[in-house]
Amino acid sequence: MSLLHLIVVAVVQGLTEFLPISSSAHLILVPLAGDWPDQGPTIDIAVHLGTLGAVMLYFRQDVAAMVMGLVSLLLGRFNPDTRLFLLIVAGTLPALAAGYILASQGFLELLRSPLIIAWTTVLFGLLLWAVDRICLQINRMEQLGFATVLLIGLAQILALIPGTSRSGITITAARALGFERADAARISLLLSMPIILAAACYAGLEVVQDGRLSLGLDALVAAALAFVTALSAVALMMRWLRHASYTPFVIYRLVLGAGLLYWLYA
Length: 266
Hints:
Mean pLDDT: 91
Radius of gyration: 18 Å
Number of domains: 1
Oligomer: single chain
């Protein structure tokens, strides 16, 4: 990989992983826009691990609580930390199961189409705008229950379609259930941790089995860049959502989707 290609991939992944604008769509489009070859699985794993480290650092108190919750669960005790851990597990299982089935059967590759990305970018962006505009903000993180997190987890399955955005669809679902904007983003980001870790492990296992493992300086640089940009993106988004809406992200999605549709049809 050229240095420019490496920087672009890492920065794009870091900026888009947790914003409701679809990182998978951007990573598919980067090679097309730059006339570059696909960055390969090793770099994909590196940038995903970089973004995982960023969100874990930002929500380090929640991460510590979930770890303590797991320990308490193993010791047969139930407390608020255990409840948080079980909530995140419950919200993660639907997408994990669906993702494994689709990936093992090779169906996910069929969805990596610029046309699909264009339409999902627009349609799910409009859905986020409508839900964010119409739905009340009456629930906080403390009101998150197993029924609501399961509904959000089921919505997360749609993120397997590139362009939908994992963070976008989970935020949309949380807002539809009445959660405040910042808390909807917090729920989405907490749910992202096991998903990113599972995806990186699955991809890493495939790389090892195929004998393509080559972690070098490129992977380390990509992970570091993705970590820094993801941490900055999460901090800025959470600060923005304390006093504003998701409209700027919707506008970006509509502009991107419209540009892709014009490019594809024209």
